[in-house]
From TrEMBL:
The lineage of its organism: Bacteria, Pseudomonadati, Pseudomonadota, Alphaproteobacteria, Rhodobacterales. Coiled coil: none annotated. Gene3D superfamilies: P-loop containing nucleotide triphosphate hydrolases. It holds the Pfam family AAA_28. This is AAA family ATPase. Residues 6-167 form the NadR/Ttd14 AAA domain.
Length: 178
């Protein structure tokens, strides 16, 4: 198997999950964001691995989940789109005082060399029970992710603030799927 593992990342609340859903509706394999899955699980069982309670525990769990997601995706054919992943979790871990991103990830690029980045878009940002941080905090996270992608030698493709269908077409065209 030789899947193309494509990462969607960037600002929290910038439209990644909506874009992922649009790609899934077009028949592509997708992987949901580890962070949202972890938060839902931790809230349901009253756990502490939550970004607003214990960021280290949350990020470590996200890294493990992202590793499992990557292993499972290796068994797929074609393109697999990820809503966040190992890079995002490594950025969170480093920001919370853990090891550096390169110490966590090593030198190997886990995803396709081109990474799609959604910019901060206040019109889309909505806080909820699982997203308790502010838009300003999301913007700061976005900048950390961009710097990390550059340091890891990924090619960032910034998605414009356009409709989800237009974004999906940009992504698919860049991936050679249109």
């Amino acid at each position: 198997m030789n899947p193309k593992l494509v990462l969607l990342t960037g600002c929290s609340g910038g439209g990644k999950s909506t874009l992922l859903k649009a790609l899934e509706e077009r028949g592509f394999a997708t992987v949901q964001e580890p962070g949202r899955r972890i938060v839902a699980d931790e809230l349901a069982r009253k756990g502490d691995a939550l970004p607003w309670v214990d960021m280290n525990a949350f990020a470590l769990r996200a890294i493990e989940m992202a590793k499992c997601d990557l292993r499972a995706a290796q068994e797929r054919e074609g393109i697999v789109f990820f809503d966040r992943g190992m890079i995002d979790a490594a950025v969170a871990l480093a920001h919370s005082g853990g090891p550096t991103i390169k110490e966590t990830l090593g030198e190997t690029q886990a995803y396709w060399k081109r990474v799609f980045v959604v910019p901060p878009w206040s019109k889309l940002f909505v806080g909820d029970v699982e997203r308790r941080h502010s838009f300003d905090a999301a913007v700061q996270e976005h900048h950390r992710i961009k710097r990390s992608l550059d340091a890891l030698d990924y090619v960032r493709i910034e998605l414009p603030k356009v409709s989800v269908q237009e974004r999906a077409e940009i992504v698919l065209r860049e991936c050679g799927a249109l």
